[in-house]
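hey so i finally got around to running the thing on that chain from the lab meeting. sorry it took forever, my laptop kept dying and i had to restart like 3 times. anyway pasting the input first so we r on the same page abt which one it is
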Amino acid sequence: MLFRKISYLIFTLTVLINYCLIAQSDVTVGEFGKYKIQLDEFENAYSKNIGGRDVAANQSLEDYKNFMDLYMKFKMKLRDAEVRAYPKDPNLLKELNEYQKQVGVSYIMEKEITEPGIIKLYDRRKEELRVSHIMIRPDTTGEDAARDLAKSVLDSILNGSDWDAMALKHSDDRFSAPTGGDIYFVSGGLLPIEFEDAMYSLQPGEIYGDVVKTRYGYHLIKVTKRNNRTPKIKASHILISYTNAQGQIDSAAAKLTADSVLAQLNAGVSFDDLVQKYSDDTGTKEKGGDLGYFERRMMVKEFDEKAFNMQVGEVSGLVQTNFGYHIIKLTDRMPMLSFDEEKEELRNTYKKQQYQVDYDKYIESLRSKYNYDLNEQSIDLLIEKSDSIRFGMTHPRLDEIKDAVLFSFADKSITVGDFLLTANSNSSFTGKQMFNKDELMIAVNKISGDMLLEEDALNLSKSNKEFAALMDDYRSGIFIFKLQEEEVWNKVKFDSTNVYAHWEKNQEKFAWPERVAFNEIFSMRDSLINKYYLMLEAGADFDSLAAMFTERQGKREVSGRYELQDVNFSDLSREANKLKNVGDYSKPIPFSGGHSIFKLTERIPATLKTFPEAKAEVSGQYQEQMSKNLENEYLKSLEERYHPVIYYDRLEKAFKTE
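ok and heres what got predicted. didnt touch it at all, straight out
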């Protein structure tokens, strides 16, 4: 398609295509025919080309003049496109329409779904919430019974029953049930989105007023704390293990040792010295007990809870865990990263956790916006006529059902035939049962959702100025491309006689440089390269030595040979070119981190290329010259038509605030 062909051109034309904003200045910097270019228009175009107004304001007047020359040519071309009725050309309009759908859908998914989602996630992750829950699983009782039980428990709690007691009695999360359902501190992106949405709506002490369903079951949710979140902390520790030197568990002895270490610490003995003398954590002992940076929930709860509540430089008392007794020293707190620094991680988390939910919500909003209507009778008809038929197969009764309207939106009707044509070209549906209503509806919902997105994309320019400007850019680019095609590229004719004449006239421009071919013996060790040199001096064959000993990758197979190349092609060729005569070899020289001996095997002086040798190069140059001539002729015709005038002196006012 045409838009694929010109995608590169669009970028190269960026210097010219942001002219559509309404000018607010009455300073005219250029005229062509009855049309004017205002200073503000020039500033907008130049700013976009150079990377923003701040950068543009620091450019020279000469830069402004050069750009204005290009911009004037561009404007005249666009006017010519209008004269040629390009804006009404059905092929161009079709291409623009397809491009708008493609780019618009991507734009919507990024700007309307993903970007708001990751901003919301970033804001949520500024806090951490301590949450408790009571979970009722439907595994044994079934969905209805599990939901009814969860609602009954919630009603009891809201009417005064003790949360902790109800958690212990009813929660199927047996790990958290003994502690009142406490699942400790969490933040955005860690839990199912249904659970997360509910918990972030609560303040400490509040219980969510409804049962929340996730893929794990039915939940009652209570928030007990909300804190500003520290993403990571860094700490060191001294561990006194319950296990003694004999491999026996002796918690009493561990406690006595831990008390002694803490007393020494309080008496002024350095933390590092005590780590070396007492800590049983062999993995951190040699690093002063340093555990590095860690997030919430990476350490056992007792350790985590104490460490995250300390200040930098603070040393804890004894902290008991399943591993023994710890003395913790907090050494750093990592601040929140900026949105831009976290953006990619946020995007990945959002895509896994919530994107599909938000996407489905957006599609549902489009169904309402564009009056989507599903024809259930056509669904039933398709199922009735599709006995044993699967997607990807030719439907044997297509003529009986193809004209039935399956769904409609925005005054457009999609028939069963339209739907099957699209569905059967989508490999994700291949093999699915067309006669199975659940599988059929998955395809209907997906295809109708895609069509609704495309409809929204076609209307996006009406409500979104940024996207409208993007489409204007593309529209301008496709018009310029077609003009170049008609006025330049299609008129360049390859004529072998003219190409030969061009070569004859410019033979001196098509020449071979001086070239050399050579062999090399390379070794990383100077003792070996000196040994090879002595062998050469004693009469050994250079090629044979290279085939046996050169250490340059891939070169033993060709006896270290390098074929003819420009003497300035590489450091290797430059070194070989220092040899005077064919057959000469060099002494060992330091080269490429090792040592080399070079042998010159062929030298061809600079010479003119024959026509067959130069033909491809001559043809390219000839076509380029013809293109430039045609381009200049076309521009000259535009200048004769529009008589362009540029007021260079007025460009001095560009980007001036006063």
